[in-house]
Design a protein that fits this description.
The complex is a heterodimer of chains A (about 280) and B (about 475). Chain A is about 25% helix and about 30% strand. Chain A is an alpha/beta fold. Chain A folds into 2 domains: about 1-90, Translation factors (Elongation Factor Tu (Ef-tu), domain 3), CATH 2.40.30; about 95-215, Nucleotide-binding domain of ferredoxin-NADP reductase (FNR) module (Rossmann fold), CATH 3.40.50. Chain B is α/β, with parallel strands linked by helices and about 475 residues long. In chain B, about 35% of the residues lie in helices and about 15% in strands. In chain B, the strands form 4 sheets. Chain B has a 5-stranded parallel sheet with strand order 3-2-1-4-16. In chain B, strands 6-14-7-8-9 form a 5-stranded parallel sheet. In chain B, strands 10, 11, 12 and 13 form a 4-stranded antiparallel sheet that branches. Chain B starts with 14 loop residues before the first helix and ends with a helix. The chains are: A alpha/beta (about 280), B alpha/beta (about 475). At the A-B interface, α1, β8, β15 and α9 of A face β5 and α14 of B. The structure holds flavin-adenine dinucleotide (2 copies), iron/sulfur cluster (2 copies) and FE2/S2 (inorganic) cluster (FES). One flavin-adenine dinucleotide binds next to α10, α15, α17, α18 and α19 of chain B.
């Protein structure tokens, strides 16, 4: 059993939890994820590891309500336990393999959409600690949904916030802010975009105009997270890859976003499109 | 003469009933039936059946104990050679192993060895008989990677010898394919599989689930930091294959592994579990092995209209004869000598149909199997709402990638000699991880051989 030692409500639909998982905390690196199961009858839910404390043997997760299982987790309390937490899964971010001396002085821009802020945090922290220059563009629908602002500003050089309704920071999408920065001659060695698939698709189109190398993290539907089922298939440069073992991070310019977007909806159709004849059975909401 | 009695038939659930439930298809023998069937065995001096059993169960001896109604003794005899009799009695391909060589099979029907083994194992479970004697603990730690049949067999043998064994399993439940692959209606999980795993635990074996060896902890860490003196790798062959044809990433195309895992491990068929699965409509299963039959028969039970598409002919079907017959009885259609060339979808990206090409059998290949060749211009389209790819699996490369000095062969299997020793000192491997997808009993046999080698290895280390 994996005990929740701390719970913090970030927004009405998002919580942060610190969970006891000593083996996992000892080995995880930025960019990796874990899978939790809330109880015997629960689904296996992939979540990014957004922070880790190797000494205390805990990992931090941030979860937003998307459907039944994430709701179940949202309502778990301090002192409750997950029946299962497994990981670290996936490959660490590429820069983890770059020697620290080389990272020093490099400049990175992170584009985080909504919940994507959580997975961006450990990456920004890692690079910031090693002397890289880190800018973060954080986008959300509205001010109330902006998360981890203080934590993030402590691990980056510039934090830019944009909201769709202008209730905080700039009004408009993250792509607009990115474009402005790049237009004014800001140079970045590398960009990393994490957020809803559709946002990553448009960030990729923007970055392309400025030849900014870009990495994205694909949150495909998963079952085991170990390469055993192929639920998480994505086309990368025309080749089929498994996001859980070959990713979750990929070169943005090679990703077939339209296919990825479509594959994310596999179990959505069961709820919304009841006239479809090939229903994914047993709507379990 | 004893062998004049015909083979005692086994009772099964009626096909029209069982297509709607996940309960076990085969009821097995009851006491009277088992004794009657046991009477058919000739108790051969040089039993051919024993030679054909990969773990050499003392078949005539246990059968004579069944005849003598000493079931507990029969169980003890089996337990000397097998740690998973209730499983093997159900899923072993007996027709090509023990029963395939039974002397009675030459002129008539072989002794129903598998069903008798199952009877004895079920009887001991129902009567709470366990054989958990073990040597006193020697305090030496051994790690086992994977809790499938090979890992379980290796762990229980080592525990009996007095070792302190921990199994590390990546999934949330122990059992390997027994838990995530083989369906409930062939191998009940809560009774049979769970009990066999309890048996292993009762020998003192610890099972740590949710640990990805190679990620959560490496084999090097286990040996250098956690003081495990040797490691057995029984990580199976769980990587699914796809065909590489157009349309394969459409919504509604799934691997058999995903489909079966959702249903078996994640219990999608039960209302009280949250897992969704692909059901209803028309399901095409591509492949002809046990995995294809299991997927097809699971899909039928979830309410689908199911067709199996296989590129060779009936004769070449690699699945067990019993599985094919059960599938037919349950209303599954077979399209032989056909191969998919493309999967077609609608504007929303969901599968709607599959283009196939007709095949004919060509010259036998090096293995003597006639290989299928496409007939030019014979393409046609069949409707499909879900396509399940059951094309075989390969070993997962994770452990080879993350363990210093561990070698693998061209097919991705870990290189190991006949004693299960790998290229890395103190690391042993066996089962599907070495051979590629095979059988439960072969995996178990390899696990037991590895246990013996590990014991010898530890002793040599001590002598030095
Ligand atoms: C590598 C990875 C990292 C992730 N990190 C986080 C994280 O840090 N925090 C977080 O809140 N979520 C994260 N997710 C997404 C999270 O796993 C899904 O939100 C969750 O599985 C939805 O489950 P549910 O039962 O609540 O919703 P469901 O009822 O299953 O589905 C609700 C909706 O979410 C979609 N969905 C289902 N599974 C996924 C999935 N794996 N990814 C995206 N959409 C999905 C469905 O199509 C549906 O539209 C991550 C996913 C991946 C693959
Ligand atoms: C659907 C299906 C039906 C079958 N039907 C039959 C049948 O009727 N009769 C028969 O004899 N055989 C059958 N087989 C084959 C048989 O199940 C396998 O040959 C056998 O299970 C192999 O045993 P194993 O111990 O080598 O591996 P597995 O049973 O595959 O177990 C390996 C275990 O290791 C775990 N693992 C893998 N990597 C790691 C890691 N890095 N860290 C920790 N754990 C890890 C896996 O999660 C798994 O639990 C079938 C197989 C399938 C898929
Ligand atoms: S283990 Fe398998 S092959 Fe051996 S006797 Fe039992 S059923 Fe036959
Ligand atoms: S070969 Fe057949 S008859 Fe002979 S001992 Fe084995 S089971 Fe009995
Ligand atoms: S989640 Fe099963 S292979 Fe990636």
């Amino acid at each position: 059993m994996f005990k929740i030692v701390k719970k913090e409500t970030l927004t009405p639909v998002t919580v942060l939890m610190e969970v006891e998982a000593p083996r996992l905390a000892a080995s995880v690196q930025p960019g990796q994820f874990l899978i939790v199961k809330a109880g015997e009858t629960g689904e296996r839910i992939p979540l990014t590891v957004c922070d880790y404390d190797r000494e205390n043997g805990t990992v931090t997760i941030v979860i937003q309500i998307a459907g039944a299982s994430s709701r179940k987790i949202f309502y778990m309390e301090e002192g409750d336990s997950f029946t299962d937490v497994v990981g670290p899964l996936g490959n660490p971010s590429e820069f983890v393999n770059v020697p620290d001396e080389e990272l020093k002085g490099k400049s990175y821009v992170f584009i985080a959409g909504g919940l994507g802020t959580a997975p961006v945090y450990p990456q920004a922290r890692y690079l910031h600690e090693r002397g890289a220059c880190v800018d973060v563009i954080l986008g959300a629908k509205t001010s109330a949904l902006v998360i981890m602002k203080e934590r993030m500003s402590s691990v980056c050089d510039n934090l830019y916030i944009c909201t769709d309704d202008g209730s905080e920071g700039d009004r408009g999408l993250v792509t607009l802010k990115l474009e402005k920065l790049l237009q004014t001659g800001r140079h970045y060695d590398m960009g990393v975009a994490i957020g809803p698939m559709i946002m990553m698709k448009f960030v990729t189109l923007t970055a392309k105009k400025y030849s900014l190398p870009l990495t994205v993290s694909l949150n495909m539907i998963m079952v085991d997270g170990t390469g055993m089922c192929g639920a998480c298939r994505v086309s990368i440069g025309g080749e089929t890859k498994f996001a859980c073992v070959d990713g979750p991070e990929f070169d943005a310019y090679k990703v077939d976003f339209d296919e990825a977007l479509r594959r994310q909806t596999i179990f959505k159709e069961k709820e919304t499109e009841t006239d479809h004849k090939c229903l994914i059975g047993r709507g379990k909401e | 003469m004893a062998n004049k009695i015909p083979r005692v038939p086994v009772r099964e659930q009626d096909p029209d009933v069982r297509r709607h439930n996940f309960e076990e298809v085969c009821f097995g023998y009851n006491r009277e039936e088992a004794i009657l069937e046991a009477g058919r065995c000739l108790n051969c001096k040089n039993p051919r059946c024993v030679q054909a059993c990969p773990v050499s169960i003392k078949i005539p001896l246990f059968i004579s104990n069944v005849l003598g109604e000493d079931f507990s003794e029969a169980a003890r005899v089996i337990s000397m050679d097998s740690s998973l009799p209730a499983v093997c009695g159900r899923v072993c391909p007996q027709e090509t192993q023990c029963e395939g060589s039974c002397i009675l099979g030459i002129k008539g029907q072989p002794v129903s060895i598998g069903k008798l083994e199952r009877f004895v194992a079920d009887w001991s479970r129902e009567n709470g008989i366990r054989f958990s004697e073990r040597e006193p603990s020697n305090g030496i730690k051994i790690a086992v990677v994977g809790s499938g049949p090979s890992g379980l067999a290796c762990a229980s043998d080592l525990a009996r010898m007095g070792y302190d064994v921990t199994i590390f399993e990546v999934l949330h439940k122990a059992g390997g394919v027994l838990e995530y692959g083989i369906p409930e209606f062939r191998l009940p999980k809560d009774t049979v599989v769970a009990y066999e795993i309890e048996n292993v635990k009762s020998l003192g074996v610890k099972i740590e689930t949710d640990v990805v060896v190679g990620r959560t902890v490496s084999i090097d860490d286990l040996m250098d930091r956690e003081n495990f003196r040797a490691v057995f790798i029984g990580s199976g062959a769980g990587l699914p294959r796809f065909m590489g044809i157009p349309g394969e990433n459409l919504n509604g195309v799934v691997s058999a592994n995903e489909f079966l895992t959702r249903n078996n491990l994640m219990k999608a068929f039960r209302e009280d579990y949250d897992t969704p699965n692909y059901t209803a409509g028309r399901v095409c299963v591509v492949g002809g092995g046990n995995v294809a039959m299991d997927s097809a028969r699971t899909a039928v039970r979830l309410g689908s209209d199911v067709t199996i598409v296989y590129r060779r002919s009936e004769k070449e079907l690699p699945a067990r004869a019993e599985e094919v017959q059960h599938a037919r009885e349950e209303g599954i259609k077979f399209m032989m000598l056909n191969n998919p060339v493309e999967i077609i979808g609608n504007e929303k990206g969901w599968v709607t149909s599959m283009k196939c090409i007709k095949m004919e059998l060509g010259e036998p290949d090096s293995g003597g199997r006639r290989s299928p060749v496409p007939i030019p211009g014979s393409e046609f389209v069949i409707d499909a709402d879900t396509v399940i790819m059951a094309l075989g699996t390969r070993p997962n490369p994770l452990l080879v990638r993350t363990t210093k000095g561990l070698e693998s062969n061209k097919k991705g299997g870990i290189t190991a000699d006949e004693n299960c020793a790998t290229s890395r000192k103190g690391v042993f491997a066996g089962g599907d991880a070495v051979t590629g997808a095979a059988t439960v009993i072969l995996a178990m046999g390899a696990g037991r051989r590895a246990a013996k080698s590990i014991n010898e290895y530890i002793r040599e280390q001590k002598d030095k």
